[in-house]
Amino acid sequence: MTQVTVDIPLNRVEGDLDIRVTFEKNKIVDAQCIGTLYRGFENMLTGRVPMDSLVITPRICGICSITHLTAAVKAIESAAQITPPAQAVRMRNLSILAETVQSDLRQVFLMFLGDFAHDYYKDFDFHTKAVEQYEPLKGQGSIAALRASKDIVKVIAIIGGQWPHTSHMVPGGICTLPSLIDMTLVAKHIENTLSWYEKAVLGCSIETFNETITTADALFALVEKLPDTHLAHFVRLCRDTGLFDIGQSYSNFISYGIVDDPEQPNNSLIRSGVILNGTDFHELDVDKIGEDLSHSWYRHTDVVQPPFNGTTIPDRSSKNGYTWSKAPRYGDVPMQTGPIAQALVDGEPLIKDLFKQQGDSTFVRELARLVRPARHLGHLRAQVEQALNNFGQPTFIAPPELTSGRGIGLTEAARGGLGHWRP
């Protein structure tokens, strides 16, 4: 029986990931996600003082450096049993939400919608509009989205002093002191991005969208009523190219939660949890998180190890190895993460209703990213209002000296759950 193997290098942002799939009778019978670059950040941190992680780990990624900083500082605070003051939590929330919004906008407009401007789709009715709006480096919509994402990321630069790779979060709070003028500018940049998003993407306020667009029927009615929004273009592109019907997985989802409650930082305003088999919700059990190295180029045992016990020992002769990436597991189960998981775990009604009808199709998965800023921008507005109302309140408490102790820091990056373990 004939098999065909296809290698797909994914290098629009970074050139260190390949996807290899094998087809048999138009059905995928094997798939490999290949990390082509060994980095070994775990080994870089061995033997260093905890504070070094706040400088080293944000450099794991140039797109989501704030989330690595957040996870690192939470791991230290967990080990030292430190609770940061409420005003510091608000500043952290502003930073991580701003980074997520800019990433969502850039992924949708620069890395997803741009494909539909390709000549491959020249015979489709939407192609002329797609070229006008989303042609890479030229499309009106893509350029506007890039400007909006540049505006929102200034929130981090003001609070943290720079972006990317800022280290303004420290055990006990933050180490920068934004002035009242700074915070007023933060509010302005949030409103600038929010105004563009409401007008150009949704065609309505985020309050109206979150409160009334709670079903698939309501979504499709909205895009019929407002056909010139980016949301409407997105729905038509996905429908016309069959993305409503492909991309479904095994329907296991995990989210670590995001937007810490300033008054109770261990609680998330967007909750954590696990969904198994598409329906069964469970509270997150951190002890079930593990790493499978059986197909990685690392020395390993044949069992899934909890991160506290994990090792990073390169071994290109490893049996069955084909990647430098480790495979995370919940129990023994691979999980889906990212915007759709975050929305389903938190019970967002629109994504729940679409998932009930289509499963986690490519359309539903990408829509979850396109509409996530409708919620995140609302949280940004609320957090900056609270920060302004509490201006002058402490943003740092001196922590005790940390000499030993295990800690875990969990948060949500733009592409999904992120955890740091301090053994």
What would a concise description of this structure say?
The chain has helices at residues 41-45, 53-56, 65-80, 86-112, 127-134, 140-160, 180-202, 206-212, 216-225, 230-240, 339-346, 349-358, 362-389; strands at residues 4-10, 17-24, 27-35, 169-170, 173-174, 253-255, 258-261, 264-270, 273-276, 280-282, 289-292, 327-330, 407-413, 416-422.
Which key terms come to mind for this protein?
single chain; 423 residues; alpha+beta; Cytochrome-c3 Hydrogenase, chain B; 2 domains; 3-stranded antiparallel sheet; 42% helix; 17% strand
Q: How would you sum up this structure, described in words?
A:
Helix 4 packs antiparallel against helix 13 (362-389). This protein has 2 domains: 4-34, no CATH class; 38-284 and 336-422, Cytochrome-c3 Hydrogenase, chain B. It starts with a strand and ends with a strand. It contains 13 helices and 14 strands. The radius of gyration is 22 Å and the shape is globular. By secondary structure, the protein is an alpha+beta fold. It has helices at 41-45, 53-56, 65-80, 86-112, 127-134, 140-160, 180-202, 206-212, 216-225, 230-240, 339-346, 349-358, 362-389, and strands at 4-10, 17-24, 27-35, 169-170, 173-174, 253-255, 258-261, 264-270, 273-276, 280-282, 289-292, 327-330, 407-413, 416-422. The strands form 6 sheets. Strands 1-2-3 form a 3-stranded antiparallel sheet, with no helix packed on it. The longest helix is centred in the C-terminal third of the chain and has 28 residues, at 362-389.
